[in-house]
Design goal:
The chain has helices at about 5-10, 15-20, 30-45, 75-80, 95-100, 115-125, 155-170, 195-215, and strands spanning about 25, 50, 85-90, 110, 130-135, 145-150, 175-180. The chain has about 220 residues and is of the alpha/beta class. The protein has one domain (about 1-215): Rossmann fold (3-Layer(aba) Sandwich). It has a 7-stranded mixed beta sheet, with helices on both faces.
């Protein structure tokens, strides 16, 4: 228990036991997802299924945990070595895969997908237990990260596209997303780990808070 001593001191034994009994699935383990995984696993949530189809590239090294020393290796396999209790699934996340996969046993679905179609499909189908983030690229100030109604987001072209696609299919539910209100600083996908990591930590924090609130 020494490993989790400071976690128990902060959250208490009862909440820590709730963490241990939580089952998560994390879709996307790139920049944002890798930091969310690290934070949640180190807090005691180890029953986590991680889903991604990608391999590490040199351009990932400025923002993705696991990338150093593992170029060209499959991300979920590398992370399985680092976090041995996770369940890795190496697959491309598509709307069809979402339809065919059984999400019923998971308490929360953590969405760090960076493709519009599967992200929209997932939110539409499982919004009650999805914790989703926008992309973290093009920004330098982590203090601008918010958890806000998707209908009230701004300065975020990616979430604007998600919002548009959700409206097109008639989705009008109350739904919050992690996004940054900071105006993008460049046109292409420049990135800064202080922001990327903060998106992942925000996702992890929200997950912990929801677990605690659920058991009250």
């Amino acid at each position: 228990m020494q490993r989790y001593d400071r976690t128990v001191k902060l959250f208490g034994e009862e909440n820590f036991n709730a963490f241990k009994n939580t089952k998560l699935i994390l879709l996307g383990v790139g920049g944002v997802g890798s930091f969310a995984l690290d934070s949640l696993y180190n807090t005691g949530i180890t029953d986590i299924t991680i889903v991604d189809f990608d391999t590490y590239e040199e351009s990932n090294m400025n923002r993705q945990l696991g990338s150093h020393g593992n170029l060209d290796r499959i991300k979920v396999e590398v992370l399985k070595e680092k976090y041995p209790e996770v369940t890795p699934i190496n697959v491309n996340i598509t709307p069809e895969w979402i339809d065919n996969f059984d999400f019923s046993s998971y308490d929360y679905i953590l969405d760090a997908i960076d493709d519009i179609k599967p992200k929209v499909h997932l939110i539409n189908k499982y919004y009650t237990k999805v914790i989703t983030t926008s992309g973290s690229a093009k920004r330098i100030d982590p203090s601008k990260i918010e958890y806000k109604s998707i209908w009230e987001t701004f300065n975020d072209p990616f979430i604007r596209k998600i919002r548009y696609e959700l409206k097109k299919i008639g989705f009008k539910k109350k739904f919050k997303v992690v996004f940054s209100s900071e105006e993008p600083k460049c046109l292409e996908k420049g990135s800064f780990e202080a922001v990327t990591g903060s998106f992942g930590f925000m996702m992890a924090s929200l997950t912990i808070q929801k677990i605690i609130a659920k058991k009250k």
